Amino acid sequence: MHDISLLVVDDHALFAEALQARLSREPGLRPIRVAFTAQGARACLAAHRSQVALLDVALGDDNGIELAAYFAESAPGTRVVMLTAAETAGSVEDVVAVLRCGAVGWLPKTVEVDHLVRAIRGVAAGEAWLSPELLGLALPGLIAGGATAQPNPLDRLTMREREVLQYLVDGLTRAEIALRLHLSTNTVRTHTQNLLAKLEVHSTLELVAVAMRQGLRASGH
């Protein structure tokens, strides 16, 4: 298993450094760099390419959501997870905005370290990470964002890709889809990556949103 490089961006130096120290004890998470400002994060991004970035939503006078958008444009290969001290129920608009910017996860700062580590490994492998409760609140906003200008982006999919997409809409995990289709998880991952590229989105959450805008609904499987 390859190491996963991380960038922690938080204007609370004590929190950022403590998180860096704790995550550095986890196997396979290295190097772990820290920035305390949006400017510092941009400088770090120019010098290094981290696979996963953990961004504070509130960065003093800066906006973590705007920084996430900058990452999406300047380093599309970096998977962004937002960390927030805010109540999730009061942040739905921010969640929708940051997912549209290309972020693939949203977690509270109070999350258990083991859960955070699983999220880091998951997003590095191409997954999205959002609680079911928050997904239920954010998904309508993603769906209501307006259809693409193309007649129907699903028309470009192969039959197998449509099957994978349907199962994603059904809420199945990659491993569950592999079992249903008698494929390896790596093959399902490849199909998911192809879906991301063809539908021009950054996360499985957006895949589901695009599919539902085009009329695809959960099949009840």
Outline the secondary-structure elements.
Blueprint: E1 4-9, H1 13-23, E2 29-35, H2 38-47, E3 52-56, E4 58-59, E5 62-63, H3 64-74, E6 79-84, H4 92-100, E7 105-108, H5 113-124, H6 132-143, H7 159-169, H8 174-181, H9 185-199, H10 204-213
Parallel strand pairs: 1-2, 1-3, 3-6, 6-7
Antiparallel strand pairs: 4-5
Helix pairs in contact: 2-3, 4-6, 6-10, 7-9, 7-10, 8-9
Explain what the structure shows:
The protein has 2 domains: 127 residues, 3-Layer(aba) Sandwich (Rossmann fold); 68 residues, Arc Repressor Mutant, subunit A (Orthogonal Bundle), CATH 1.10.10.10. The strands form 2 sheets. A 5-stranded parallel beta sheet has the order 2-1-3-6-7, with helices on both faces. It has a two-stranded antiparallel sheet with strand order 4-5. It is of the alpha/beta class and 221 residues long. 49% of the residues lie in helices and 14% in strands. About 2% of the residues have low confidence. The protein is globular and about 50 Å long.
Major sheet, described briefly?
Answer: 5 strands, parallel
Mean pLDDT: 84
Count of domains: 2
Output the CATH class name of the largest domain.
Alpha Beta
Characteristic terms for this protein:
2 domains, two-stranded antiparallel ribbon, 49% helix, 221 residues, Rossmann fold, 5-stranded parallel beta sheet, Arc Repressor Mutant, subunit A, alpha/beta
Short description:
The chain is α/β, with parallel strands linked by helices. It has ten helices and seven strands. 49% of the residues lie in helices and 14% in strands.
